[in-house]
Amino acid sequence: MKLLTFLFALLTLAPATAFFGVSTPTSAFSSTSLSAKHAMKKAAKGHNAYRPKKSRPSDINRKAPSYNLPKDADKPAEYTIGGK
Predict the structure, then answer these.
(1) Residue span of the signal peptide, if any (predicted)?
(2) What's the mean pLDDT in 3-20?
(3) Do 41 and 49 touch, CB atoms closer than 8 A?
């Protein structure tokens, strides 16, 4: 009878351990490390870091393009309200 009780307890506890993690304190740190080795550049900072470098003097000394934007008075109306 004791053997049957022992086998029954063993068979019910073995699958239950799959749901509960068994912790074995092997070291102070876990075996999987989630910390990054190097910080990554994000968004535009990363894009600009890997762009081709300006090596020609004509590229280095080039001014930014001037965009000829119309003044507020020269802009056409975005919406026209029509009446009946």
Answers:
(1) 1-18
(2) 69
(3) yes
* 72 vs 47: CA distance, rounded Å: 34
Alpha-carbon gap, residue 2 to 8, rounded angstroms: 10
Which structure tokens are listed for 12?
A: 């019910």
Q: What is the pTM of this model?
A: 0.25
- % of residues, the chain, pLDDT over 90: 6
Contacts of 41 (CB under 8 A, 6+ apart): 49
Mapping DSSP onto H, E and C, the string for the chain reads CHHHHHHHHHHHHHHHCCCCCCCCCCCCCCCCCCCCCCCCCCHHHHHHHCCCCCCCHHHHCCCCCCCCCCCCCCCCCCCCCCCC
